[in-house]
Design brief:
heterodimer, A: alpha/beta, UDP N-Acetylglucosamine Acyltransferase, domain 1, 2 domains, eight-stranded parallel β-sheet, 39 strands, globular, B: alpha/beta, Rossmann fold, eight-stranded antiparallel β-sheet, six-stranded antiparallel β-sheet, 17 helices, 37% helix, elongated
């Protein structure tokens, strides 16, 4: 079966990280979301993969090229201008024949186990169009799917009014017939309306997903996704070429990749992930749910806690980064503190762009975009969002802009 | 777009071949064909139509073989005719080929083959392949070499599989751009366009990459690159698959499936013939003393029946746990014993019924399994017709039994003139609405229940409180929690609180309170009073009620609101909610849902 991954979206609520990459190129638990999806597809026996790229496509295209070298069959198609989900799907219509079913995947969802296997099993059972559904972890409702006992979807309410309905929602993974393209044409590229017609005419079955599931929309959800995947780890792995000096303490599950150097006295509390070629300075404390990308440098005596750090980022000595996400090539000066809670222990709100979001999280640090330079001795306020490329002098308090 | 499959095994594989190709039908189905190798000849069957239709029409399954290939076609080159259907054969009939893809240079190849004297039967691009194989085999005298040469001559895309009388135990296949994989079983191997074709037989797949060909026999396979001719070491991909999924109808667990089947099982319980129930009603009415016996869940069902029959018909029956029956109950000639059991094999209940019969009592049973020991033992049997209940934890069977007991209560009331015929009809029509309401609740409340369960799954102690008929509901709900989530849960009448239990209320013990609809005024107010008692001690209360949102502001810590219904079915609806609550708590705790520890489906030991 062919798989179509939608990766063209702008993800504007995921700023500052989506300003420089498409969402599938966010790395959580040491792995790009995109790679995670390919891995699961492979284990689900699917190796014919089409990716619709658009927003900031370069990074993703480069990654696809690297996969081709590994022998995977991945092709990409460009959505020239933003035109919604329906339009993105239509980019691959030549690749799918009218008689054929294909797997459709939204590139911004994360699961703790193999959702593609699961939906294939449902498809194998029903031999007709299938939509994966799940119960979201919070009150924030994404839609409402009505079922009959034969798992047939009888109704979809995308945005229920009020809070009187609470049920299964569409989880962004479908197996659809090739004729779906015609439905999209007919409904002016509206995914919602095309699905409605599918429900009414041909029928759409549900595949119930019970493991964890997350749609990454906001930057703090990167931390949730990171935690979700790390919680599913069962084993540690330390590459042969990693060097651990004397008195390095490791607890819990850790993933340490090639050419990592961990200096004496460092403590790693799993689950945590250290990417290729990282340097961890003496007496550092890497606490649970920390994910370091490739070639990061962590100075002497740094404390990291529940944070996602992307590639090539440097964190100067005696800093504390907690409950935060740092982009690529970020340079953090010595003695920088991310403040990760309010004095009154109230949940942190995040001002991103013009809007203010309630995260409901009591502990939350900062979201620092790519190529930011932060001078030594700085304090970053809770929930601060720093756009890519900003430069801050030393000894300065950084707030959300 | 087509699907191809092939099977090679020890014995007859014709049935397996049928299933592999039927599982690929989703790739297109305007015509279908198979080639089976039989001793030294190839039997080819093909026709237009879908897979099942073709198999029936051509009676394909009567041909037995240990090796074969099959094809389901969606026409791209050539019309939909029998001639254009795969497999295609060479002139000498020694090669039969199935193909998915498009051979772009087929016209040139065909012309030169025709010049060499080959006769073509179809309009397809595929037919050049068997003729090329025959031609190359004539020159090279080796099937593998002829195959490699053929592959190099083909332009375009393909997944090819063929069988040949030269090697009657082998399937040859190759891939360029069209999908192809092997399924690796013991003593049986598969070739398929994707793993859907063979997943019912093996989860071990070898994915063939572009530019590779494979030779597959029942006990081995070899993959080579057709340009370099070197063997390629291929890893076996273990397809992540749960063989039970199809039996679970797509639900993650039988328990959830059975909870979702309740609209149907309630309907079935309502469809149980009146005459069958009338015998039981007559038995109760004529007896000096009636007993309801069950054990575990069915004991709570019996208690529910006790409350219902008492309030509807004004007759008191004893609900007794089967294992205590002999010790507690004085049964004699004028006694009537109604036993409840899903399986009809429950040791304790069978013992109780035997004991009653030995004392000359009349007996009846409500059971789900036809022909079970209890159904043969009891004088009258009510078959509840809930369908097989596979999850060890009873959900749909228990709810259906409760519905049957409500019907018995109503009939008894009518017989004793405790209820008018009009009131009886009204009550029956309320019951008839129950399946639809359960369906709506499942569809509109699952998310809320899941959210609450997900938030509080770490709580170690739960109190389940109810008054009146809601008390057995609390007991049964607490049992679900204990059984499936292994969490301490205690069912209790609301009135017990002030007799000592309130002392336990603290931040570690959470309560669930079953609130009746407001029209049951006395019960409603008494139950709310229990809630206030807990809240006054800062205890957590999850209220399951029928009031509108915000009606009892700040009374509950969490609330689950149900559509306002008649008191006759209100407790049943609350049971559905607590089944789901126990289920989602158990999934959050990652319990083995369908086979919880220390519990067997039917307890047949004493």
């Amino acid at each position: 079966m062919k798989a179509v991954i939608l990766a063209a979206g702008k993800g504007s609520k995921l700023t500052p990280f989506s300003m420089t990459r498409p969402i599938p190129m966010v790395r959580v638990a040491g792995k790009y979301l995109f790679d995670n999806a390919l891995d699961m597809l492979n284990k689900a026996g699917i190796n014919d993969i089409f990716v619709v790229v658009g927003h900031r496509k370069e990074k993703l295209i480069q990654r696809i090229g690297e996969h081709l070298n590994d022998g995977l069959s991945v092709h990409y198609y460009e959505q020239k201008k933003a035109g919604g989900i329906g339009d993105a799907i239509l980019q691959v219509r030549d690749k799918v024949l009218p008689s054929e079913y294909f797997l459709l995947i939204y590139g911004d969802t994360v699961t703790s186990a193999n959702i593609f296997s699961k939906i294939q099993q449902s498809f194998h059972l029903f031999k007709s169009a299938v939509a994966s559904i799940c119960l979201p972890p919070s009150n924030a409702m994404f839609g409402n799917v009505f079922l009959n006992p034969q798992m047939k979807i009888t109704r979809i309410i995308e945005k229920p009014k009020g809070d009187e309905l609470g049920n299964y929602v569409l989880s962004g993974v479908y197996i659809l017939p090739g004729s779906f393209f015609q439905l999209l044409d007919k409904h002016k590229k509206s995914m919602e309306n095309a699905l409605m017609e599918l429900v009414e005419k041909e029928g759409l079955r549900a595949s119930m997903w019970e493991d964890e599931w997350l749609d990454i929309v906001y930057p703090w959800q990167i931390l949730t996704a990171n935690r979700m995947i790390m919680n599913s780890w069962e084993q540690s792995s330390i590459a042969k070429t990693a060097v651990l000096e004397a008195n390095v303490t490791i607890q819990g599950t850790v993933r340490i990749e090639e050419d990592v150097l961990i200096k004496a006295g460092a403590v790693l509390e799993g689950p945590c992930s250290i990417g290729k070629g990282c340097y961890i300075g003496n007496n550092s404390l890497i606490r649970s749910y920390t994910s370091l990308g490739n070639r990061c440098s962590v100075g002497y005596g740094v404390e990291l806690k529940n944070c996602v750090v992307l590639d090539n980022t440097r964190i100067g000595r005696l800093s504390f980064i907690g409950d935060s996400v740092l982009g690529e090539d970020v340079d953090i000066g010595a003695g920088t503190m991310t403040v990760n809670r309010a004095l009154d222990w109230k949940p942190i709100s995040v001002k991103n762009g013009r809007r203010k979001y309630e995260t409901g999280m009591v502990k939350l640090g900062a979201f620092v975009g790519d190529d930011v330079v932060i001078g030594a001795g700085n304090t970053i306020q809770p929930g601060a969002v720093v756009p890519p490329g900003r430069v801050f002098p030393a000894c300065y308090t950084i707030k959300s802009e | 777009m087509c699907g191809i499959s092939g099977v090679v095994g020890l014995k007859d594989i014709s049935n397996a071949l049928f299933e592999t190709i039927r599982n690929l039908e989703y790739r297109g189905y305007d015509s279908c064909g198979v080639a089976l190798l039989n001793k030294n000849s190839i039997v080819v069957k093909k026709n237009v139509g879908g897979v099942e239709e073709f198999y029936r029409k051509e009676n394909v399954l009567r041909h037995k073989s240990s090796i074969g290939i099959a094809h389901t076609r969606w026409a791209t080159h050539g019309r939909v005719t029998r001639e254009n259907t795969h497999p295609h054969q060479s002139c000498d009939g020694k090669f039969a080929v199935v193909h998915n893809g498009i051979i772009s240079n087929y016209r040139a190849l065909k012309e030169s083959l025709v010049r060499l004297g080959h006769r073509f039967e179809s309009e397809t691009d595929t037919e050049v392949i068997p003729h090329l194989l025959e031609e190359n085999h004539r020159k090279l005298n080796n099937v593998e070499a002829a195959f490699v040469k053929t592959l190099c001559e083909l332009e375009g895309t393909f997944a090819i599989a063929f069988v040949s009388t030269y090697h009657p135990g082998q399937i040859f296949c190759a891939k360029r751009e069209s999908p192809l994989m092997l399924g690796i079983g013991d003593e049986i191997k598969f070739v398929g366009s994707d793993f859907n074709s063979f997943i019912d037989y093996t989860k071990n797949a070898v994915i063939i990459d572009d530019g590779e060909y494979a030779i597959v026999s029942r006990d081995s396979y070899m993959v080579k690159n057709y340009l370099t001719r070197e063997e390629v070491a291929k890893p076996i991909t273990k397809i992540e698959w749960d063989a039970e999924t199809s039996k679970k109808g797509g639900f993650p667990h039988y328990m959830l499936k059975e909870i979702h089947e309740q609209p149907q099982t309630v309907t079935n319980a309502l469809d149980v013939e009146d005459a069958v129930l009338d015998k039981v009603v007559e038995g109760i009415a004529q007896s000096g003393q009636g007993h309801l016996v069950g054990v575990g869940t069915t004991y709570y069902v019996a208690q529910f029946g006790q409350y219902m029959i008492s309030s509807l018909a004004g007759q008191s029956l004893f609900a007794v746990s089967s294992d205590e029956f002999a010790a507690l109950s004085n049964v004699g000639r004028d006694s009537f014993v109604l036993a409840l059991s899903q399986s009809g094999e429950t040791y304790d209940t069978l013992t109780a019924v035997k004991h009653a019969k030995s004392r000359g009592a009349r007996t009846a049973a409500v059971v789900n399994v036809m022909g079970s020991s209890l159904s043969r033992l009891a004088d009258n049997v009510v078959l509840q017709g809930s369908g097989p209940e596979i999850c060890v934890i009873s959900t749909k069977a228990a709810l259906a039994q409760m519905v049957i007991l409500v019907r018995i209560g109503l009939k008894l009331a009518l017989r004793k003139n405790a209820m008018t015929a009009a009131a009886f009809d009204r009550s029956m029509s309320v019951l008839r609405d129950l399946p639809g309401i359960i369906q709506a609740v499942l569809n509109e409340r699952s998310g809320f229940i899941h959210r609450i369960a997900h938030e509080y799954f770490k709580i170690k102690h739960w109190l389940y409180l109810g008054r009146g008929v809601y008390y057995p509901i609390a007991l049964e709900s607490a049992l679900k929690m204990k059984e499936v989530a292994y969490v301490h849960a205690e069912g209790m009448p609301g009135g017990f609180l002030k007799h000592g239990t309130l002392a336990m209320i603290d931040k570690d013990i959470y309560s669930i309170v079953f609130i009746p609809p407001r029209e049951e005024k006395a019960l409603y107010e008494a139950t709310l009073h229990s809630v206030e008692e807990i809240r006054a001690r800062s205890g957590f209360v999850l209220g399951i009620h029928f009031d509108e949102r915000g009606k009892n502001k700040n009374l509950f810590s969490e609330e689950l609101i149900l559509p306002n219904v008649s008191p006759l079915i209100a407790p049943l609806l609350q049971l559905v909610i607590s089944q789901l609550f126990a289920y989602f708590t158990a999934t959050s705790l990652k319990r083995d849902i369908d086979k919880p520890r220390s519990l067997a489906k039917s307890v047949t030991v004493g």
